[in-house]
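FAQ

Q: What does a record look like?
A: Structure on top, sequence underneath. For example:
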């Protein structure tokens, strides 16, 4: 893999973070929706501010996909812009989270703040760019990124900025990490390489960010070791062990350490400049103010979409019901209400809300998905063939109306497995289509890998699972065990037994476990 030749080098002051500045929300704004090729952005802000944010998201997407040779997903991501970072932190249980991105076959989404709280050194663009880089890396099914590269690249691209001529500038240090990058206690290159097989302890996680950024910056931007970063990735993607690949590509790791330590003591760091005329992206953004019902339900939708605790579900649905009752013909409101009612276990109400949404928007796969889920609940309770048949009919209709949406494919596959018996024609092909449409979703990757193992294509299955096994943000120990079994040469029968033993056959329609009495 090679970097495109149109990257030029410019110099950036070592302590200066080049960020995409975001204007503060105006005092009298209203909810807007901005739609572009890759994004649907909701924000309570002035239209021109939202347009600029969305255009720059598109340009960021274009830069990353070009540099990293990442595939273009067919599904746009939904971005919710909150008033500030405190709202996101509260949403996540007060854990200090200021923004997050979640890939999903039901529609990938992110929460980012319009502005940061006092004392926070990150900017809204850094939060979004860091998280979206992870999304792009997982979209690239042809390359494998180790732990240090995953976080290092996310940090590297988080400070990408567009100057007044539209050029992209990459490489400014993350000022929030200065203490970790320059500190006395830090990992050597060898320890970074070993992080795949010897994960860091909790208090060492910062090394993946700080020293990962430094190593990525040196290999990609310094010009001292051209091509080595991608040569290393290519070897990993072919299944070579991390340390063996590193020694072949980088040579003496102690020498590389010395070079990196000299590099970090510079007064300035070089940067990439990607010329504006080389950033090929459609910058068309369609803006509209939200309908009255959409704006009214939006706060409840934002709480619901990221996932809520069971004990909160009923209260949230109760708060949203008066709004939904006022806007019975609004498909956005009714689709949102269907999800909240389902989470509250009010299944009949969920089905009714979904039907109201579909009456206006027959291709609303989100609403259809909740009709399917209610039908499966009924089928599991009754055991009647006609109830299972209704669920299948609903999924197939959704797929016919939206053939490029991964959700019906995943539901059809899960439905077949939940019902048992012979796998219907097209169910496995559908899940392999879904992983093309949304390769960043770990659950879809796992389902597709299981199908491929059953078909004997273990090499492709491994390429789907390996990034998940080493994801520093996830708890994917069982997947790591499965990858190790693949590397040990186990055949498909042994691997299928391993999958069962590790309880990796995930299914959204698996019966709920009953609590012990």
């Amino acid at each position: 893999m090679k970097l495109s030749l149109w990257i030029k080098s410019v110099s950036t002051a070592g302590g200066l973070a080049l960020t995409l500045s975001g204007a503060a929300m105006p005092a009298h704004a209203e909810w807007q929706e901005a739609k572009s090729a890759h994004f649907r952005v909701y924000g309570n802000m002035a239209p021109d501010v939202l347009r600029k944010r969305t255009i720059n998201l598109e340009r960021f997407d274009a830069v990353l996909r070009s540099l990293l040779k990442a595939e273009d997903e067919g599904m746009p991501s939904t971005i919710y812009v909150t008033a500030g970072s405190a709202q996101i932190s509260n949403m996540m249980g007060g854990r200090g989270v200021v923004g997050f991105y979640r890939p999903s076959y039901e529609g990938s989404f992110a929460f980012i703040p319009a502005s940061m709280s006092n004392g926070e050194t990150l900017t809204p663009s850094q939060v979004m760019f860091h998280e979206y880089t992870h999304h792009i890396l997982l979209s690239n099914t042809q390359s494998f990124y180790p732990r240090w590269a995953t976080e290092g690249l996310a940090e590297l691209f988080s400070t990408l900025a567009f100057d007044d001529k539209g050029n992209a500038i990459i490489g400014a240090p993350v000022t929030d990490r200065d203490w970790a990058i320059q500190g006395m206690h830090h990992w050597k290159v060898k320890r970074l390489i070993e992080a795949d097989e010897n994960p860091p302890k909790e208090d060492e996680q910062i090394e993946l960010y700080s020293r990962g950024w430094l190593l990525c910056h040196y290999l990609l931007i310094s010009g001292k070791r051209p091509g080595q970063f991608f040569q290393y990735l290519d070897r990993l993607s072919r299944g070579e062990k991390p340390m063996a690949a590193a020694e072949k590509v980088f040579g003496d790791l102690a020498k590389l350490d010395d070079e990196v330590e000299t590099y970090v003591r510079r007064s300035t760091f070089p940067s990439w400049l990607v010329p504006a005329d080389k950033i090929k992206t459609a910058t068309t953004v369609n803006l509209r103010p939200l309908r009255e019902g959409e704006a009214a339900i939006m706060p409840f939708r934002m709480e619901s979409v990221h996932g809520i605790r069971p004990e909160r579900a009923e209260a949230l649905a109760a708060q949203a019901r008066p709004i939904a009752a006022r806007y019975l013909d609004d498909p956005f409101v009714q689709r949102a209400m269907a999800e909240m009612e389902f989470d509250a276990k009010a299944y009949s109400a969920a089905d009714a809300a979904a039907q109201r949404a579909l009456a206006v928007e027959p291709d609303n796969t989100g609403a259809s998905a909740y009709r399917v889920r209610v039908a499966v609940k009924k089928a599991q309770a009754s055991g009647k063939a006609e109830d299972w048949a209704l669920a299948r009919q609903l999924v197939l209709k959704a797929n016919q109306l939206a053939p490029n949406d991964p959700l019906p494919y995943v539901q059809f596959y899960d439905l077949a497995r939940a019902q048992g018996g012979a796998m219907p024609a097209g169910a496995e092909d559908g899940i392999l289509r879904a992983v093309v449409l949304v390769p960043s979703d770990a659950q879809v990757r796992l389902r597709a890998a299981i199908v491929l193992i059953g078909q004997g294509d273990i090499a492709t299955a491994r390429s789907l699972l390996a990034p998940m096994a080493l994801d520093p943000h996830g708890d994917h120990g069982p997947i790591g065990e499965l990858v190790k079994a693949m590397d040990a040469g186990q055949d498909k029968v042994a691997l299928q037994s391993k999958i069962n033993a590790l309880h990796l056959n995930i299914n959204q329609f698996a019966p709920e476990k009953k609590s012990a009495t």
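Q: Is there anything notable about this one?
A: Residues 8-278 form one domain.
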